[in-house]
Amino acid sequence: AQSVAQPEDQVNVAEGNPLTVKCTYSVSGNPYLFWYVQYPNRGLQFLLKYITGDNLVKGSYGFEAEFNKSQTSFHLKKPSALVSDSALYFCAVKDSGNTPLVFGKGTRLSVIA
Amino acid sequence: GAGVSQSPSNKVTEKGKDVELRCDPISGHTALYWYRQSLGQGLEFLIYFQGNSAPDKSGLPSDRFSAERTGGSVSTLTIQRTQQEDSAVYLCASSLARNEQFFGPGTRLTVL
User: Which one is the CATH code of B5-111: 3.30.830.10, 3.40.50.620, 2.60.40.10, 1.10.238.10?
Assistant: First the structure.
């Protein structure tokens, strides 16, 4: 069965500093990996995905994520954080079939001016 | 183009009443998913429809929960005899097969 772990409930970073939100996964076969962001009282917005190809994936709002097969990780990164990046971030995984996503518990990112 | 829409945006009901939540997926998306997000929790998968195949109901928490998808498009999630623990945000998503899911804004259900 698939599973996702987001080890940090909360990440605090100063504006302008780089940010990392961690995610590790477990899946049989090749993983499909996703990051979503949820702003207050809003639905989830898709940020980026890894299906195959380059291990470094670039997504919306300047975010990127690096797929590391040996460490089964898919950490979300941004070189310079903005206050407006403050939100709840979810990592998700699925296998290659037509199956639902399995989500992590989410990491709340707080960017401080 | 239009995204996934859900109605109502908020629903307050009394314990024991039935509720229906509606989801309009993105046109042409073959897959439709329902999730539940409780306060401070992650997303819990409920049910999944793919084309004309039988739905994957493995995430439904009890037999009080059911869902249907008519004509391969609109879906309705029904909760019978609501309980206070059913209070949550119910999210609907749609996708083309094997691609990223696009989420609606959710329905916030409060059971008094």
Answer: 2.60.40.10
